[in-house]
């Protein structure tokens, strides 16, 4: 009987989801610059609706990035505070992998017990501002297990590449708004990228449940956001 709370504020979306005995409840909102006001009330509401106290959770998952610097810090800090208060572990979840799992789930329910043999390839990309993107190539198999084909990175749109054997794939995320700046090879392979697919807490629960079963947990004190571009950001801040 697994109970996991998930939080994400890595983009303009703010979301909270709760897994209780295989059932998921989620509150997902597009709310730019409102995360600090909305997140904890959303958490309290979803816990109250489920009739649970925080001490009854097994773990808390959070979107650890990449994404908005401020947004990642909000989710990380909230997850740390809640976990420390009741002494439970944390599960950091990649925002890019969560996007791929969400897209795969929409195509075919990853939780289905029906036999399938399709493995889906995704290139998830988020707008990193400063004319750059956060991106990664991800493979999602039938039961939502994720294999990272190319690691998370930040680069110019022109630098995005694909594995040589990745012949059939899906483009997801806000970073694809820079498609016209990418190489001709990439442009020739992309049709109708899904720009409106955000990282969301409900999809993170699929990854968090697997991580929990495998003992891939961390202590609250060890929670660290993944910025990818932290050195560049600090240099820019110093210049300002």
What's this model, at a glance?
This protein is an alpha/beta fold and 240 residues long.
Characterization of the model:
With 240 residues, the chain is α/β, with parallel strands linked by helices. The chain folds into 2 domains: 133 residues, ATPase, nucleotide binding domain (Nucleotidyltransferase, domain 5, 2-Layer Sandwich); 94 residues, Nucleotidyltransferase, domain 5 (2-Layer Sandwich). 32% of the residues lie in helices and 26% in strands. It contains 6 helices and 9 strands. A 5-stranded mixed beta sheet has the order 3-2-1-4-5, with helices on both faces. A 4-stranded mixed beta sheet has the order 8-7-6-9, with helices on one face. Helix 2 links the parallel strand 4 and strand 5. Helix 3 packs across helix 5.
Overall number of strands? 9
Q: Over all CA atoms, what is the radius of gyration?
A: 18 Å
The residue fraction in helices comes out at 25-40%
Series of H and E elements:
EEEHEHEHEEEEHHH
Strand-residue proportion: 25-35%
The total number of structural domains is 2
Mean pLDDT: 91
Strand line-up in the sheet with most strands: 3-2-1-4-5
CATH architecture of the largest domain: 2-Layer Sandwich
Global outline: globular
Major sheet description:
5 strands, mixed
Count of separate DSSP helical elements:
6
Based on secondary structure, the structural category is alpha/beta
CATH superfamily of the largest domain, please?
ATPase, nucleotide binding domain
Annotated CATH topology of the largest domain: Nucleotidyltransferase, domain 5
- Low-confidence segments, given as residue ranges, are 113-117, 232-240
């Amino acid at each position: 009987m697994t109970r996991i709370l998930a939080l994400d504020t890595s983009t303009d979306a703010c979301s909270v989801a709760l897994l209780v005995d295989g059932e998921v409840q989620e509150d997902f909102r597009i709310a730019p610059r409102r995360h600090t006001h909305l997140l904890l009330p959303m958490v309290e509401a979803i816990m109250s609706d489920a009739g649970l106290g925080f001490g009854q959770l097994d773990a808390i998952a959070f979107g650890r990035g990449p994404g908005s610097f401020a947004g990642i810090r909000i989710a990380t800090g909230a997850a740390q505070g809640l976990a420390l208060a009741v002494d439970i572990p944390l599960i950091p979840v990649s925002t890019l992998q969560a996007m791929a799992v969400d897209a795969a789930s929409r195509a075919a329910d990853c939780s289905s017990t029906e036999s399938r043999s399709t493995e889906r390839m995704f290139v998830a990309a988020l707008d990193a501002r400063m004319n750059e993107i956060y991106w990664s190539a991800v493979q999602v198999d039938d039961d939502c297990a994720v294999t990272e084909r190319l690691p998370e990175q930040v680069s110019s749109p022109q630098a995005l590449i694909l594995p040589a054997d990745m012949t059939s794939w899906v483009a997801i995320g806000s970073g694809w708004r820079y498609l016209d700046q990418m190489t001709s090879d990439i442009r020739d392979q992309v049709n109708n990228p899904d720009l409106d697919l955000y990282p969301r807490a409900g999809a993170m629960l699929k990854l968090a449940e697997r991580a929990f079963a495998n003992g891939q947990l961390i202590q609250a004190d060890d929670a660290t956001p993944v910025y990818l571009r932290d050195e560049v950001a600090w240099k820019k801040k110093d210049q300002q």
